[in-house]
Fold:
Amino acid sequence: MGMDRQESVKSLFTAKSAKVDTKRGDAYYEKLYDQCRTRLDELKKLAPISNRMDFSKSIEEEGVDRRDFLKWASATTAMLMLPASFTPLVAEAAVLMNRVPVVWIELQDCAGNSEALLRSDGPQIDEIILDIISLEFHETLMAPSGHQAEKQLEEAIEHFKGKYLLFVEGSVPMGIDGHFGTIGAKGETFIDHLHRLSEDAAAIVAVGSCATFGGIPAAAPNPTDAKGVMDVVQGKPIINIPACPANPSNMVGVILHYVLTGQVPELDSLLRPKFAFGYRIHDNCERRAHFDAGEYVEEWGDEGAKNNFCLYKVGCKGPMTFNNCSIIRYNEGVNWPVGVGRGCIGCSEPDFWDKYAYERPMSNANIKAPTGGVEKTVDEFGLGLLTAAGIGIAIHAAASVAAGKKSEENA
Amino acid sequence: MKKEGYVRIERMTRSMRIIHWVNAISMIVAVITGLYIAAPYYQTFIADPAVDKYVMAWNRWGHFIVAIIFDVTSIIVFYLAFATRFLKTKPYEKDVPTEGNIKQFFEVLLNLLTLNRRKKFDSSQLDSFNSIFFTIFHLLLLWMLLTGLQLYVHGLASGISSIGAWWPWMLHLFTDWTIPVSAWLNGSSANIASIMDVRISHHSTMWYIIVWVVFHIYYQVWRTIFWQEGDISIAFGGDKYIKVDEKA
Ligand code: HEM
Ligand code: SF4
Ligand code: SF4
Structure:
């Protein structure tokens, strides 16, 4: 057990609930308010960094009126679990988002998280905010490529030393000394790349399931020995925003929280912000009444499916998954997986591809048996064990009877 | 009932027998409801809207009620076993690997394996073999308790409960460690343990318990038939019999 493993076990032992204490008394919030006020005033003095898009103008151009913006600000204040009096500060922070430099790198990934924030149905406030953040480097989005791109990266990390937020998308392949994934003309491995860029980052934000827990690349048999950022980088504040893809609202929430307070939000034992991952899907699901009633979709498209029954029997893992998509949904609240009639696959939990995403209840899914070897369902494994015990007992019983008869004859 | 040439020995007092059968019935209910929770195996037929029928909710309710009974009896049993003179033979005294206990353990095992041709131990009181066997059961049950409570606290994500915030807080404190231990027991190769590991372990441990129960019943019946000392009635009447000359 490595040092970090021990740490994670220790943090498990001392983990409190996922709850964020929202009743800390007026004194606490007044102090926090003043802190945020000072920070915002300081940020205001700074010139916008490279992104000169003006937030107020952007939202106007996109046809979002001020009322909608304030509605968004109060909803976001609530999401961050701050008192309503913070709403004006949140609105101000949104405008100042372009003062915090962001470097976004992609490792072993599908760019799904970048896609998630680009391809929403129509740019809404969360997306606009992500448009105006000061994205100093993003391989997929920026115009330069090759040596030019590399130069831009070097300049950004030099210029914003100790100040930038490093967003990481994708897992880190650790196998064959990291040579499963290299980047740039010098063939720098993803491991070295990540270490080098984390060095001077203010904090690291791992977005998506791959960067947080290894995700799909880490699924069995994990050929590249893929790991999440928190298993690779030590000694830096790390914020995990898992899910496949990570919800843009949660990315905005984390950046906003940082812009506003200069701090990392309260995290759970898996380093996920509690404001987003302190909710269990199942407890905030619109199909929950059908779960309790025992009304389940038995197969895709059946009568139950037409009546929005619970998706538990077609493999919904909402009961074992912590995420806020059953509350804030995706694409600016348009819908979410269970809403469109397919179960939750636990995308925000570690090892989700092997342990959650098999579209049937856990007990009907093939999972590696404790003994290793052939994958079996737990029930097949148990029945096998029971059969073996039964055979053993039958043999013993028959032998005992035979032996008993013999000793009677002898007597 | 008197049997010529035998003396009657009390093995289980009334309270011990009550605990035994409460456990047995709870176990049956836990398995039936637990398997429904795992994969609802019967349909709800009642043509009522969802708000009027609670088939899963009742199964979960039943599961949690037997869970509470298990929890409470376990605490009582542990108290009685360790802190009082409730048990005549302390199982943990029979578990420690002293020379006598090891010898007895293998003698009892040999008795089973030689199909009762060899019986060289005192069968009037609890023997080391059964003692170890029962201890394994208690550990399995304890594991069910801890993993069950871990699964249960997931539903209390708000950190509050009807009996106060101390309850989820305490459950986290006492059961969060089952997450990495479950992953290890499941032989998980993942980087990070997940709460699903606990569920997998809770389910597979059920099968270990069922196998345990099957062997337990077989062995007690086997002893009754071949030793002819009426072992089976320990759990019912509380007594068994032992040959006088053997005792002497
Ligand atoms: C011998 C005793 C027990 C047996 C055989 C048993 C069996 C089971 C099984 C088979 C499941 C379904 C797991 C799956 O999804 O595959 C389950 C779920 C569960 N069990 Fe147990 N269990 C036992 C004791 C307990 C105890 C003592 C507790 C303590 C609170 C408990 C709490 C739970 C909970 C919370 C769930 C999940 C239910 C849900 O999320 O709706 N169980 N149990
Ligand atoms: S659909 Fe999934 S999350 Fe919703 S109630 Fe059913 S099991 Fe729970
Ligand atoms: S419903 Fe489940 S699998 Fe789908 S996005 Fe939400 S947490 Fe992920």
